[in-house]
Amino acid sequence: MDRSRSKTGKANMDILGRGMLLHKVKGGGMLYPRKFILDTKNMVLRYEGSEKRLRRKKTSWSISKIREVREGEKDYSKRLDPFDRGRCLAVIFGANHDVLYLYADNYEERDMWLKGLRFAKHIDQYMDQKEQADRWVREAFNMADKNNDGSLDFEEIMKLLKQLNADLDRKYVQQMFDKADTRRIKGEKPTLDREEFVKKARNRGTLLKMTVPEDQVKDYIGAYEPQKQLQLDDHMSTIGFRVLLASQDQQLFNPAHRRVYQDMTQPLTHYFINSSHNTYLTEDQLKGPSKVEAYITALTRGCRCVELDCWDGSDNEPVIYHGYTLTSKIYFRDVISAIKDYAFQSSPYPVILSIENHCSVKQQAVMADYLRTILGDLLYAPEQIPDEIPSPSDLKGKIVLKGKKLGSSSRIISNEEDVGEVSDEDEAAENNEQIEKEKKSKNLKLSPEFSDVIGLKAIGFRDGIFVSLGENKVIKMIENEPENVNKLSQKMLVRTYPAGSRTDSSNYNPIPMWNTGCQVGDLFKEKRSLSRYGSGKTLKLTIISGYQIPKPKDTTKGEVIDPFIKVEIHGVRADTKQVKTSVIQNNGFNPRWDEVVNFTITTPQLAVVRFAIYDSDRYVDDFIGYYVLPFTSMQEGYRQFPLFTKQGDKLPQTKILVHVEIKEI
Asked: Could you tell me the CA-to-CA distances from 264 to 4, 276, 525 in Å, in that order?
């Protein structure tokens, strides 16, 4: 049975490797037939058959960029509405969840692609470091092979090295080229084929010489040296050393902190909560699109509090969008269905739905019905709000609504009871005097059915446990009365959000809010009172070297980059500091700094360390990537860390090597 299944799976992968007709689904219900190929040797999904020769467009995707492969029935795109969703699949790429929609000719072929893509994704995830490096080199080779003949001549190699940010002497490259060209045919133009190039790239130099205790040497060789004979001889090859450097053992971030390691039995007010503002928007705040996919993106990134701005829609269907703007609308029911499917993929702890309720009583009842029927037992809706604030452990696996709630003898919430809470929609309305005047002249009528599904009461300072404060208001409070803000956060959850003027979706700096105890920000970790943070630390950080640092995204400059690193400490005012390394000229491939920076950190539990890499420029330095981690999650010794783009995508193969020493003050 298993053997038969294995043969069937291999046969299916062979079919997908040769290519199969699928249809790209575009907006407006358009279908474009293309031959799609699942190339498991180079680990890419690609297609052939596009007739738009003069237009630059993406025809291949790295398997490593696939976040999810989803059945059409489980997708929420309106573009699939004209089709049989059972024959559709959606391939989701990158941290921003870009989606490729595909339509198969029948169910059998759709299922073959679903299984094949998921299997390829599984293979990619469990590649060892050597295989990952080889794949990256092959991708670079394919990028340089413009005529697709499977080989590169010397001039193409020189162009590729420049693309890889390696500014090498031409004579030296010629020597390496001649040495690698083992299959040269007399009378023909010298070239390197893909495997010759990969083999030569495997033997390139390493980043540093590392001294380790003698008793650890055998353990490292046994764990990371791929060649058995070298293991027996107690030797480590260059490849083995690179595998060691890139391993989990050598990460800067403490792997034990990848799971929740704090006490999660304290009241919710004792924790910082990863939060998202206007979650549904994917671009700007005035006319950009609203997408259900944005909620999936936020939840799979670990967000535990998402926002839903709810308004009356046509045909008695509540919708979500940014009120008083031209942003598009999505159905409330679709968002709730997506939240149910993805709420607990990244964490078992509760998800809070921050409801901005602008619906009529009639459509509030519709929302309440959707919440109960779609979420079922996942919904936390106690008949009586408990006297004590529940803990994350109490609410494990639960979805909790934060919003207005009726009192025992009330069926209308008046403006007077709203004192102290300003929602983002209220703040947006302040920019329009007529809208603000209309809002002040009305009471918000609340459906009893909707009130009954609220788990966290948000009324104001005098009542409830959840208060929202706009950026400008909370900054003034922190400047004038920081102790009072901290006291407030000890008895209720304080949510802060960007000012309404940030129409470009830029973000404010949340560190001052976190420092005074405002919980609903961008991190999820335990919070203690400010008087019990313990002793300070000193951090000695040696920035050693970098590896395969790419050019800035969308750069038009052709030259090799001149990288430098900015190291920043964010925390209480006394700890906030930043330093820069020197600029390494013309080398993004393997720049070396060997520079030491020192920091004194008085409040380690609130300190965040950020590394930002730039390409030095005469006018404006170009951002390349960053890495951020809590100070308390740093490991000492020789360590490496990756880089991420602004969108949250990991830069493939890029590494920065450092040495860390931490001491008590």
From this structure: 47, 21, 9
Phi and psi at 126, nearest 5°, equal: -105, 15
pLDDT digits (tens, 9 = 90+) for 609-641: 999 999 998 888 999 999 999 999 999 998 999
Burial class of residue 17 in the structure, from the number of CB atoms within 10 Å of its CB (0-12 exposed, 13-18 middle, 19+ buried): middle
Is 171 in contact with 177 (CB distance < 8 Å)? no
**Phi/psi of residue 117, nearest 5 degrees:** -65, -40
- Helix, strand, coil fractions of the chain, as percent rounded to 5: 35, 25, 40
Which is the catalytic residue, given 23, 270, 277, 570?
277
CB within 8 A of 115, min separation 6: which ones?
A: 9, 12
Q: How far apart are CA 404 and CA 399, in angstroms?
A: 16
Query: Catalytic residue at 277?
Result: yes
Q: Report phi then psi at 131, rounded to 5.
A: -65, -40
Largest interatomic CA distance in the chain: 96
List 97, 322, 570, 659, catalytic entry: 322
Q: In a 3-state reduction of DSSP, which class is residue 159?
A: helix
Q: Count the neighbouring beta carbons within 10 Å of the beta carbon of residue 201.
A: 17
Q: What are phi and psi of 504, to 5 degrees?
A: -90, 10
How far is residue 344's CA from residue 351's CA, in Å, rounded to a whole number?
8
Q: Which two tokens stand for residue 162?
A: 């420049």
Kindly tell me the sign of the dihedral angle through the C-alpha atoms of 289, 293, 299, 300: negative
CB crowding 274-299: b at 16 or more within 10 Å, else e: bbbbbbbbbebbeebbbbbbbbbbbb
Work out the number of other CB atoms within 10 angstroms of the CB of residue 465: 18
Alpha carbon distance 637, 565 (integer Å): 19
Q: What is the value of pTM for the model shown?
A: 0.76
Residue 190 has pLDDT above 90, yes or no: no
Coil/strand/helix, residue 193: strand
Instruction: For tokens 């009542």, name the residue.
Output: 463
Helix (H, G, I), strand (E, B) or coil at 227: coil
* Whole-number Cα distances in Å, 452 to 378, 382, 394, 481: 15, 8, 20, 36
Would you call 322 a catalytic residue per the annotation? yes
Residue 392 exposed, middle or buried by CB count within 10 Å (0-12, 13-18, 19+)? buried
pLDDT in tens, 313-336: 999 999 999 888 888 899 999 999
Across all residues in the chain, what is the average pLDDT? 80
Output the CA–CA distances (angstroms, integers) from residue 448 to 311, 363, 377, 465, 540, in the order listed: 17, 12, 20, 20, 59
At residue 34, φ and ψ (nearest 5 deg) are -145, 150
pLDDT of residue 419: 31
Cβ count within 10 A of residue 265:
10
Cβ partners under 8 Å of residue 644, min gap 6: 95, 625, 626, 627, 650, 651
Whether the CB-CB separation of 540 and 661 falls below 8 Å is answered with yes
CA distances from 626 to 109, 309, 633 (A): 41, 32, 17
Cα–Cα distance for residue pair 608/502, rounded to 1 Å: 24
